[in-house]
Design goal:
CATH architecture: 3-Layer(aba) Sandwich
Radius of gyration: 23 Å
Structural class: alpha/beta
Largest sheet: 6 strands, mixed
Number of domains: 1
Number of strands: 6
Distance between the termini: 63 Å
Order of helices and strands: HHEHEHEHEEEHH
Length: about 250
């Protein structure tokens, strides 16, 4: 017969073992220790202009060039859903969804990938239907749904009244790169409560979750650029501020 005290002792041992295992994982697992992805290709016109935008119309995500298959369509839908979900969490502006009439400018339309030839009727219709000051275009530039997972995302924020580009993100995510994989696994744990194992285990085996990771990094930068720059530490001197006469570009 097993005495209660022995059961209690066994429970304590198991709890200690699990605790040691957790500590060891935090000390050795790259999703805790890094290195993490930190550089992304994006540009911003600057906070002084962005702060004037109070409402943004979100258009459907465009497919990659020639990518009209089911995987690409599903991935584009996931990108769009991720953008809306991320912006609903402490978004810096009111986001409204806009569906162009009869699906125009969708399914690979060039207008959704560049801002060189935006149809004026689109800008006018968006402003008339939504009263938005800006439009957020998005497109899926690349997508590989098998290991190593890869996705390319482009976001472009355009001012409605003159078509000026206010903010842009254009970058790719490759789960075959160690820093990106570490960053994706950290995101899954902290944002989705999903714990994964490091390689050689198939750490990120869900294209949908990997897409959400990529979208979250892009939208996080958008949110950050809509916030004023933090004040420098007391006593710091950076010289006299310079007037800005052109859009500011920066990478993070």
């Amino acid at each position: 017969m097993i005495r209660p005290v022995h059961i209690l002792n066994l429970g304590v041992v198991l709890a200690l073992a699990m605790g040691c295992s957790s500590v060891a994982k935090r000390l050795t697992d790259p999703s805790y220790t890094g290195p993490f992805r930190s550089q992304f290709n994006h540009s911003s016109i600057g906070f002084d202009v962005l702060k004037t935008i109070g409402r943004v119309a979100i258009l459907p995500t465009a497919l990659p060039e020639g990518g009209l298959g089911t995987p690409q369509s599903e991935a584009a839908t996931e990108v769009q859903a991720g953008i809306i979900a991320e912006l609903r969490q402490d978004g810096p502006f009111e986001a409204v969804f806009y569906q162009p009439p009869k699906g125009r400018w969708l399914q690979g339309a060039l207008e959704l990938r560049t801002t060189e030839a935006l149809p004026s009727q689109l800008l006018q219709d968006v402003q008339r239907q939504t009263s938005a000051e800006a439009i957020l275009f998005s497109s899926l530039s690349t997508f590989q749904p098998y290991p190593p997972l890869r996705i390319g995302i482009k976001l472009t924020l355009v001012r409605v009244h003159d078509g000026a580009v206010l903010w842009q993100f254009d970058d790719g995510f490759n789960a075959g790169e160690a820093s990106t994989l570490n960053d994706a696994r950290k995101y899954l744990r902290e944002s989705m409560g999903i714990e994964t194992d490091p390689p050689p285990a198939l750490s990120v085996d869900s294209p949908q979750r990997f897409i959400r990771y990529g979208v979250s990094r892009a939208v996080r930068l958008l949110k950050r650029d809509f916030q004023p720059a933090p004040n420098p530490p007391l006593g710091a001197t950076n010289g006299s501020p310079k007037a800005v006469s052109a859009p500011q570009s920066k990478k993070s």
